[in-house]
Amino acid sequence: xxxxxxxxxxxxxxxxxxxxxxxxxxxxxxxxxxxxxxxxxxxxxxxxxxxxxxxxxxxxxxxxxxxxxxxxxxxxxxxxxxxxxxxxxxxxxxxxxxxxxxxxxxxxxxxxxxxxxxxxxxxxxxxxxxxxxxxxxxxxxxxxxxxxxxxxxxxxxxxxxxxxxxxxxxxxxxxxxxxxxxxxxxxxxxxxxxxxxxxxxxxxxxxxxxxxxxxxxxxxxxxxxxxxxxxxxxxxxxxxxxxxxxxxxxxxxxxxxxxxxxxxxxx
Length: 267
What we know:
Layout: H1 2-47, E1 54-60, E2 75-81, H2 87-93, E3 97-102, E4 109-113, E5 136-138, E6 150-154, H3 173-178, E7 181-186, E8 190-202, H4 203-208, H5 217-227, E9 242-248, E10 255-266
């Protein structure tokens, strides 16, 4: 009888400890999420001041330079979110900041970092704070000024939906229809990203086929075309510069979701 009581008490203690441990981990996770969200919101409020209106900008084949609009559209009216990024102030916070990525109507409103140690920003915020949310960051093989034919940006798929977690929405055509553009602000100039493809790829395949290198951009675009989760009318032309956003996906072990768009320079 006493042995049964002792066993029951032991089980109760173990169960209670496990519950307390799970509760503590949940609190820590929520604290981490809140800390990261607050840090990026404060940075956004400091670095940029968006207006409520968008500024219409007319792009034509004569003035867009390397990223010309498709020839069938001689003139195209687009709306650029009317705010500026204070890169001088941003670089005072962290000189690794290369750009600012903004996707209207989503949580994506973050600085984009670039460092030779590509693992650093897996667990550091843009201000250098240690946090599992990490930062958006450019592949260390790429230049920081987006001057190459292909630039890859990595970011976590957080359970809270932050960082690049919202990219999962592009697995549905309706989400693409609502979010066909992103905007990239750099010290050299601003761009609209015309979203072209989104696809799931295994991390092993990504690395084995070296999809992160500009020399293999044709292979990447062909794979993305054959496996895209939505359809768009965006076309790639020789001389265009491409941005690929890569984050974790969960169709299978080591799955990645990669969103691909073409840079359109805003004069």
